[in-house]
């Protein structure tokens, strides 16, 4: 199985940490970088090949990961000369990728079964699978519904439940057909195009442990919880 890890972002939300370190190498706990955790998880799940799409401070990532042999993987690299969005880096890689593969952000801390996401994608027959997670947003204000300047409903400090993308995707190589290598392609654009074409993505619903390390609140929480969650996140460690 082959995974592509998107590791080229500047990590603006985590500054000043990411001024000198690329976001995938920010530390979690006392011993591990988030990218190391992800690579160990992929290896444990049975992935043998991984492509790292690097950009900002990419030479540090290359020096840290090397060829991936320390995790029992074969790692190669693709360098972004300019930002290409979430899916844009895949276009230049198309001929190096298998028919179905996993794509993920390099700042995800989760106990998601990556292999099962890819298996589910292959079984679904859809062009794209999106791993999704339930989030709840609390509104700290009374919410008014209006119609022609009249208040027609009122809810005091409601909570909104919705599902968000986890930044983990199953992708089929043919899904990239028709897009131009070297031009940006965002996840939002790809999903919009698929919906417009009547080819809706498959949703892989997950309700385990997931944090987006690119968000300062989630990063702080990850460091506070890592020791107690280590056996869950790094099985066999």
TrEMBL record:
PANTHER family cross-referenced by the UniProt entry: SUGAR-1-PHOSPHATE GUANYL TRANSFERASE (PTHR22572)
Superkingdom as given in the UniProt entry: Bacteria
Stated name of the protein: Sugar phosphate nucleotidyltransferase
Nucleotidyl transferase domain boundaries: 3-227
Coiled-coil stretches: none
Alphabetized InterPro entries for the sequence: Mannose-1P_guanyltransferase, NTP_transferase_dom, Nucleotide-diphossugar_trans
């Amino acid at each position: 199985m082959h995974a592509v890890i998107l590791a080229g972002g500047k990590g603006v939300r985590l500054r000043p940490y990411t001024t000198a370190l690329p976001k995938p190498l920010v530390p979690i706990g006392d011993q591990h970088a988030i990218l190391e955790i992800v690579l160990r998880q992929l290896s444990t799940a049975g992935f043998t090949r991984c492509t790292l799409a690097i950009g900002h401070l990419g030479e540090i990532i290359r020096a840290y990961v090397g060829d991936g042999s320390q995790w029992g993987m074969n790692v190669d690299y693709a360098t972004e000369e300019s930002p290409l969005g979430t899916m844009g880096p895949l276009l230049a890689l198309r001929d190096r990728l298998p028919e179905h593969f996993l794509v993920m952000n390099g700042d995800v801390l989760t106990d998601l079964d990556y292999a099962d996401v890819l298996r589910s994608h292959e079984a679904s027959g859809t062009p794209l699978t999106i791993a999704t997670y339930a989030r709840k947003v609390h509104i700290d204000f009374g919410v008014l519904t209006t119609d022609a300047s009249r208040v027609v409903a009122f809810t005091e400090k409601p909570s909104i439940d919705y599902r968000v993308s986890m930044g983990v995707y199953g992708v089929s190589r043919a899904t990239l057909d028709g897009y131009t290598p070297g031009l940006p392609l965002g996840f939002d654009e790809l999903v919009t195009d698929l919906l417009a074409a009547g080819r809706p993505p498959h949703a892989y619903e997950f309700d385990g442990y997931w944090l987006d390390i690119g968000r300062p609140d989630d990063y702080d929480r990850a460091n506070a919880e890592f020791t107690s969650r280590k056996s869950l996140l790094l099985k066999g460690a």
